[in-house]
Amino acid sequence: MDKIEVEGGVRLSGEVIISGAKNAALPVMAASILGPGENLISNVPQLRDISTMGKLLAHLGMGYHQENGGVILQSSDITSIEAPYDYVKTMRASVLVLGPLVARAGEAKVSLPGGCAIGARPINLHTIGLEKMGAEISLSEGYIHAKAKKLKGADIYFDIPTVTGTENLMMAATLAEGETVLENAACEPEVVDLANALISMGADIRGAGTRIVKIKGVTGLSPLNYRIIPDRIEAGTFLAAAAITEGDVGINNCEPGHIESVINKLKETGVEITHETDRLRVRGPARVNAEDIQTRPYPGFPTDMQAQFMALMTLAEGTSLITENIFENRFMHVAELKRMGADIRVEGSIAKVKGIRALKGAPVMATDLRASASLVVAGLAAKGTTIIDRVYHIDRGYESIEEKLKVLGARIRRIK
Ligand code: EPZ
What we know:
By secondary structure, the chain is of the alpha/beta class. Helices cover about 30% and strands about 25% of the residues. The protein has helices at about 20-30, 50-60, 85-90, 100-105, 125-130, 165-175, 190-200, 230-245, 260-270, 305-315, 330-340, 370-380, 390-395, 400-405; strands at about 5, 15, 40, 65, 70-75, 80-85, 105-110, 135-140, 145, 155, 180-185, 205, 210-215, 225, 250, 270-275, 280-285, 295, 320-325, 345, 350-355, 365, 385-390, 410-415. Strands 22-23-1-24 form a four-stranded mixed β-sheet, with helices on one face. Helix 1 packs parallel to helix 2, helix 8 packs parallel to helix 10 (about 305-315) and helix 8 packs parallel to helix 12. The structure holds ligand EPZ. Ligand EPZ binds near residues 26, 119, 125, 303 and 326.
């Protein structure tokens, strides 16, 4: 298993280029099921999750290959409607083939994702929505089986704004009979990106990015040729890395409007951030002040930035209260940060972080994608060497993170 070794104490400086958004590329790849023919998607990050989705789509009978920063998906023939457990267990986002398969092929058999490190993460809202659209849903041997000759438009209210739930049902609704209204829909930029991709295929979708999305079914969609938005969480992670190392970094090819909540919060801690159209300039102060956060659905502070922000707060002046409202178990990074000397106490969904003067490098273990990013951020500022084990977690969501950090002056290397 690869490890990453970080020698702390270097102030990051220079320019970094942000890759395409993993959580936009995954649903847009699944959307290619709806457009028979050659689908081209550009600005796709080279990540394990992307190739897992590609292998799953190939398993369904589609042609898949990656070339110079994009993927090509040939979806003329769908020869299987089954997403086997092997794919779903390595990547829960595999569940995104459920809606498109029922819409295109009238049937889907998708393995239940099972829990993951950060929480139970059920998909009941996905299946309840499909049932409302007339699908017959059954569960056997850990597989969701959904069948519908032709889906019908329906009014669907989400008890909780679910990102992939909104995406699955939006895709299913594009070929349904009549209009579907999604209420309390997720507003994340990745949901909007998927809607724009579907609209470019001929779908009739209004209101994406707001809590009420209306989709009028059409008879068919054409293949897409689409460029994915920048990854707002990667951009936020580099903001935290520059802030914690008193760095001076230019973050290029990003969309500042997608991380207003993170930018505003970091400014409150004393980080200097200026932005032009697709570039952020960030300068970290000698020491940030403690600030509280509550993770919320978009446009609130993103749960995917909670761990990285916590790493920054371990060195802040004062005490920060970090409340995780989205997932029930997203504090696995706390134990690892404490091994580096951080002063953190968890009470339920609140982590109380008392800032200290310095972290000490230590051997630590990555537990999930964003927790591993927070350990890299902490390692960049810690005194001494930090060795992060199980970095396959980080490879799921960050395109060659150590290369990008090396360009900014970090003393970081991968140990095979
Ligand atoms: C998406 O996961 C992202 N993944 C996650 O990013 C992100 O953390 C999450 O949204 C929240 O922003 C992708 O887009 C591929 P949800 P998703 O459905 O869609 C509950 C990363 O780091 N819920 O919005 O699975 C659920 O348990 C990943 O890249 C139900 O109860 O999240 C959670 O508490 C990690 N029933 C809340 O809703 C359902 O049917 C939000 O989950 C669906 C969700």
